[in-house]
Amino acid sequence: MPKKVFITGASGCVGHYLIEMLLAKTDYELYLLMRDRRKLQIDVRDRANVHIIEDSMQNIHKYQDLLRTMELVVSTAAGWGGEEAFVVNRDQTIALFSFLDPQVCERAIYFSTASILDSHNQIIPEAGAIGTAYIASKHACLEKLESSTIRDRLITVFPTLVFGGAVDKPYSHLSRGLKDILKYVPYARFLKTDGSLHFVHAYDISQIVTHLLTSNLEVRSPARLVLGMQRLTVQDLIAQFCEYLNIKVGWQFDLQPWLVDAVIKLFRIEVAAWDRFCIAQRHFTYDVVSPETFGLTSKYPRLANLLAETSKK
């Protein structure tokens, strides 16, 4: 019998890549929760193993009986701000995982965010204390899930900066804004600052998640996987952007943290506590995994791969 997998946030950027890959590589029965089926850009009309559930996470309790039959669950749904963030990201997500039957469920994958972790992949208390509604709700949810009845089969994935999208898939927030970001590169190339980050493409995320759903990989609780490519410094980022635009980097002004703080004070710029914390932190780097970690091959290992895709839009 094909295994059953329940996927929330199925009509989103990552959801599209994951559904496409699961259909290509497995015979799983897919149960796709989405608020608006018209947003699904994959033609599943002739797919008897695809079941679309047009509803929101707020009504997840209506599917308790169905969830108890699921061997696999992937929760990508997210509320981005305000009270909805706590309702979806904390309350309803905790409810979703509580409905799973420990005697049936084999693997549960929860999408969190790398923003709530430090460089050693440990939860930072500031995420819960001063984080935005999105950050604080993700922080609260993880603490509950890692002490739940399915914690021994729970894998939490923490995407770093997510890119992705195509003519037949919705774009991530970053990919939608990438062309606008490029407009500022001719000015940003004159600035130098200390900082670093990771990125990951939705295609490579789906590769990893598909592997987790189809392999017998043993996990140690709490299982935390931060998804990202190799570390990029801000200077690497600017240099690669400039190379793509065929402009020279040249002389750079060293933008020290104290100067940023002085500008904020001088112009009386309102900065939230979480934003100030992030400005001070500067390095958003982690102990990451990529498709290569699991013997797979990244399709977007470098920024150049992303920029090449941008030029095709």
UniProtKB/TrEMBL annotation:
A cellular-component GO term for this protein: cytoplasm
Pfam families in the record: NAD_binding_10
The NAD(P)-binding domain, residue ranges: 9-150
A single MF term (Gene Ontology): aldehyde dehydrogenase (NAD+) activity
Protein name: NAD(P)-dependent oxidoreductase
